[in-house]
Design goal:
Chain A: GO terms for molecular function: transmembrane transporter activity. The complex is a heterotrimer of chains A (about 450), B (about 325) and C (about 200). By secondary structure, chain B is of the alpha/beta class. Chain B contains 12 helices and 11 strands. Chain C is built from 6 helices and no strands. The radius of gyration of chain C is 22 Å and the shape is elongated. Classes of the chains: A mainly alpha (about 450), B alpha/beta (about 325), C mainly alpha (about 200).
Chain lengths: ~450, ~325, ~200
């Protein structure tokens, strides 16, 4: 890096954080800061061209059609009531376990994650139903908040996942492999979260045992109640169909991720048609399209901003210099890995999941793959930690969405409720680092390359 | 890592090629020559694999100053360097060296051809190597007619060439060929030349390699922003010109090296080589009116396209006897006979 | 307070519907192409080229509507702790910056459109589709988006000036997520009651 580049980099970073702090759109903050850098390093003409060409060159890319298609598929699945179906089935099956209501909320999040690609959507969709069921079983709102916010992170890990798709596009790694690689870590996360829930509930049961307000009694009453829930077997079956069409075909190697997304969305559309009253189908379709297009344009505007920003970073030589600096520092690759992952957490204070990946992936991926770490494994670790950043205090998007959706929840108790799940996440990340095979065995088994 | 290089000119080069491709290696040698000749006062920063600018944007970006130097593929040049796309026309020559020299001679000798570059504000420095067109297939084809009904990855004019024999041209990035071939989404691929196969993992998965007789179709060139070039002191311009002149030689050398490696890998994998018969190729060529279409398309835009095409063919005819270079595809074919 | 003029809303919503229709078309085109290739040995010529161009419209036609629904992400971290006067100034700065960005980007996009039109720019595949219509859509989408964004910023500034400070921990993005959740929950609940009937 030349002196001019270093100066530009400092100016750009300062401007970026100032713009974020004054609550400018994240996309604009990225764009304006990046453009300032281009003006400093090249010329005003070059900066205007960069900004003006970014939207077309960002979107005119065939591999990106998977993003609106996955979004559309998830929205249709919600509209068709499949999230609720998954939740109901879990409530019936798990009702007798300690913390059955919380466990079914977690399982519901997991199942919903299998058809939707976004973390915030999972929280927003399941917050009310889950909280209601968990409170009814006698648990605190802290537990409900923890389960829902942490459960939301499954939306990104378990395929389909917009963020894993973006990661694949940015780093030019196989999208199919990345999507498949998320499955086992997603299941591991569910298991560890489940153990956390059972631990918390057992402690609470013991604490209240014998009192008038015993948790065991209240849970038992709730379990009786849950027996009456009418299971929506078809809805549950449809949930599996969509997952099979969109992910199963990738696993079996009969479709590319792009094709799988088209077929998955088509299947979801047909399912919505079957399940809606015919008079309401068109309205439902229209609402789903409006919702999907809104989410799509939000994602792409962020990508345009990030594109301008990373253009500047490449021009300044900062990315290359960072890689060189880290590699020449001659420290343990695993130390670098852990430091890189830790760097992601504070980003969650300023950015949503998509922006975090758009900024972190181009910087961290080349550093870590440079050490010979498996690229897919790195991708899953980075995405997993970026999702953690959405639930860590003081600012975490999932927690904010939860507080917004559930009126009686306070931010403080929400974060306290999340805390045990952050510990659980640290355990999950540690396991994934120690046993990389958990990430890679499913893509290795499949026909995907 | 933060060494202040202190070079007087730091030129940013944007390419869609990967750092290890034969094309990038040529530019690396070119840049090293210039840095040496100018005592490091002119240095080149590489941005590979479209990391700075996408392939379609490369020319415009050189013009408006987003980059200084860029690799421009002929397939993306129809709107801006229309006359340069004459080099896309198939069935002209099977000799890449002849093709590269023709690209440069047209620039020196054809006013119409050169005017496009001048209007775009870029200077053509040198062409990058591109081998003869091949077709990779998962089952054998003895004649062009055998391609009928097969889905084959193709781009540019080659799509129309195989369409004329009933194949389904499928557009996809080179990175996706391997996976698509393995899954049977396509049964073959073209619009790629032999030296580039290893980069995309294709030496292990191509059962049959056919020389379809299309020859060299398509090219890419390295251009520099004209104003920038002219603003440089004469000694630096000279250094650039000399290195550019040497780069055609670098091109054939790097292509040979990459081609030999690809050939070895293909032979180890047991790939079978064959070529379509000359008579079949002549028929095929006769059924196509690509030259005429090209001339018509650009005459409508006010170019003397026929004149440029005639010059191109004339130059090729003059260059053919001067070169004994054999494309890696031919060389690899020859080894099997 | 923050009502967006009716014609703007209508226009934005129309564009969303157009984008939605294109998304469904894109989905069916891909299915037909893959199906054709798998079962009939014939793919649809130029599917990739058409899809790639359509992506541009699908990606950006919804920008203005998303802005109307406050969907774009911004983060309030520092602002909550600042005195009202400073926040008012910041709202003013925001308005200026958004306007500035809007002018630069719109101006640039107009240049890109003009250039694509004059040069007769086409896609590089077999169909050689003209790119200017999509670049026109891009210009329309962004101009409309910036008009709405500037309108919102000015109104937020005016609201603050009149003392109607937005509640502290209510992020715009959160408000949007809450609305979504309500929508979604309504749909789900409506669906279940429908089934019980
Ligand atoms: Na998911
Ligand atoms: Na956080």
């Amino acid at each position: 890096m030349t002196g001019a580049s270093v100066g530009a980099l400092v100016a750009v970073l300062i401007l970026f954080f100032v713009l974020l702090a004054i609550r400018l759109h994240v996309a604009f903050a990225l764009m304006l800061a990046g453009l300032l850098g281009v003006v400093m390093l090249r010329s005003t003409d070059a900066a205007v061209s960069t900004g003006a060409n970014a939207p077309f060159s960002t979107a005119a890319d065939y591999s990106l059609i998977i993003i609106p298609l996955f979004i559309f598929m998830g929205v249709l699945a919600v509209k068709a009531g499949l999230a609720q179906a998954g939740f109901d089935v879990a409530s019936r099956v798990l009702r007798k376990l300690p913390g059955g209501a919380a466990l079914s909320s977690l399982a519901g999040s997991g199942m919903f994650a299998a058809v939707t690609g976004s973390s915030v959507a999972t929280v927003a969709t399941l917050a009310k139903v889950s909280t209601e069921a968990i409170l009814k079983a006698g648990h605190s709102i802290k537990l409900a908040a923890g389960v829902v916010c942490a459960g939301g992170t499954l939306g990104v890990l378990i395929p389909p996942s917009i963020i894993l798709v973006l990661y694949g596009i940015i780093t030019e790694e196989s999208i199919g492999r990345l999507l498949l690689a998320g499955i086992a870590p997603g299941i591991l996360t569910i298991l560890i979260y489940g153990m956390t829930i059972m631990g918390l509930v057992t402690r609470e049961r013991r604490r209240t045992a014998g009192t008038a307000n015993s948790l065991i009694e209240r849970e038992r009453a709730a379990a009786e109640e849950a027996k009456k829930i009418k299971m929506d077997g078809m809805g549950f079956a449809y949930l599996i169909v969509i997952f099979a069409v969109s992910i199963g075909t990738i696993y079996l190697g009969v479709a590319t991720p792009t094709e799988a997304a088209s077929f998955g969305a088509t299947a979801a559309l047909i399912i919505l048609f079957i399940r809606s009253q015919k008079s309401k189908f068109l309205t439902g379709l229209k609402d789903s399209l409006v919702e999907s297009i809104g989410l799509t344009s939000m994602t792409f505007l962020l990508m345009v901003g990030a594109g301008v920003f990373t253009y500047f970073l490449a021009l300044s030589g900062a990315s290359t210099a960072l890689v060189d600096a880290v590699v020449s520092a001659d420290v343990s690759p695993y130390l670098v890995l852990v430091l890189c992952l830790l760097m992601i957490i504070p980003l969650g204070m300023f950015l949503d999941g998509t922006s975090m990946i758009l900024i972190a992936a181009p910087l961290l991926h080349p550093i870590l793959t440079g050490y010979g770490f498996d690229a897919i494994w790195i991708g899953i670790l980075i995405v997993k930690v970026a999702e953690m950043a959405l639930i860590t205090p003081p600012v975490g998007m999932n927690a904010f969405v939860y507080v917004g959706t559930v009126p009686q929840a306070r931010l403080g108790e929400t974060f306290r409720g999340i805390f045990p799940f952050i510990i659980a996440d640290i355990v999950v990340v540690a396991i994934l680092i120690l046993v990389p095979d958990i990430v890679t065995f499913i893509p290795d088994l499949s026909g995907t390359t | 890592a933060c060494s202040d290089s202190g070079a007087e000119y730091t030129l940013h080069y944007a390419t869609y090629s990967s750092p290890t491709s034969d094309q990038s290696k040529v530019v690396q040698r070119w840049a090293a020559d210039i840095e040496e000749a100018t005592n490091g006062e002119v240095e080149v920063i590489f941005h590979y694999s479209g990391s700075l600018i996408g392939a379609e944007d490369a020319l415009q970006a050189t013009l408006d100053g987003r980059v200084d130097i860029a690799q421009v593929g002929s397939i993306y040049a129809a709107s801006d360097l229309s006359m340069y796309t004459v080099v896309d026309l198939p069935f002209k020559t099977k000799n890449p060296e002849v093709h590269m020299h023709s690209i440069m001679r047209l620039y020196e000798e054809s006013e119409t051809y050169r005017e496009d570059f001048e209007r775009q504000g870029v200077k053509l420095m040198y062409p990058l190597p591109l081998g003869s067109m091949m077709i990779g297939l998962s089952s054998p084809a003895a004649t062009p007619e055998d391609l009928e009904g097969r889905s084959i990855r193709a781009g540019g004019l080659t799509s129309q060439v195989i369409l004329a024999r009933g194949a389904n041209p499928v557009a996809m990035g080179a990175n996706d060929i391997y996976e698509s071939l393995e899954r049977g989404i396509v049964q073959g691929y073209t619009s790629i030349s032999l030296p580039n196969l290893p980069a995309f993992g294709l030496t292990r998965s191509t059962d049959y390699v056919v020389d379809p007789g299309i020859g060299v179709a398509g090219s890419s060139i390295v251009v520099i922003n004209q104003d920038l070039y002219e603003s440089m002191p004469e000694e630096y311009q000279q250094a650039i010109d000399e290195a550019s002149a040497n780069s055609l030689q670098y091109g054939t050398e790097e292509m040979d090296a990459a081609g030999a490696a690809a050939c070895t890998e293909l032979r180890e994998a047991g790939t079978e080589f064959s070529a379509f018969e000359d008579a079949d190729v002549e028929d095929w060529r006769g059924d196509l009116a690509l030259d005429q279409d090209w001339v018509t398309e650009f005459e409508e835009r006010g170019y003397d396209a026929q004149g440029v095409l005639d010059d191109f063919e004339q130059i090729i005819a003059e260059e053919e006897p001067l070169s004994d270079y054999s494309a890696p595809l031919n060389a690899c074919m020859g080894g099997s006979q | 307070m923050r009502t967006i003029p009716r014609p703007l809303v209508l226009l934005a919503e129309t564009l969303v519907i157009v984008a939605g229709a294109l998304l469904v078309f894109l989905m069916l085109l891909t299915v037909a192409d893959v199906g054709g290739r798998a079962f009939a040995d014939s793919s649809i010529l130029g599917t990739v080229e058409i899809s790639t161009l359509l992506m541009v419209a699908i990606a950006f036609l919804g920008l203005a509507a998303a802005e109307i629904h406050n969907r774009h992400v911004s983060v309030e971290l520092v602002e909550a702790y600042l005195p009202p006067v400073v926040r008012l100034i910041l709202a003013g700065v925001r308005t200026v910056l958004i306007t500035l960005t809007g002018i630069v980007i719109s101006w640039g996009l107009l240049g890109v459109l003009t250039s694509a039109f004059e040069r007769g720019e086409t896609t590089s595949g077999i169909l050689r589709l003209a790119t200017w219509p999509m670049k026109g859509i891009l210009l329309v989408s962004f101009v409309l988006f910036f008009v709405v964004a500037i309108w919102n910023a000015i109104n937020e500034f005016l609201d603050m000036k009149e003392g109607k400070v937005v509640e502290d921990d209510q992020l715009l993005a959160v408000q949007q997520a809450i609305d979504d959740a309500d929508d979604i929950t309504d749909t789900v609940v409506a669906h279940r009651t429908e089934e019980k009937k």
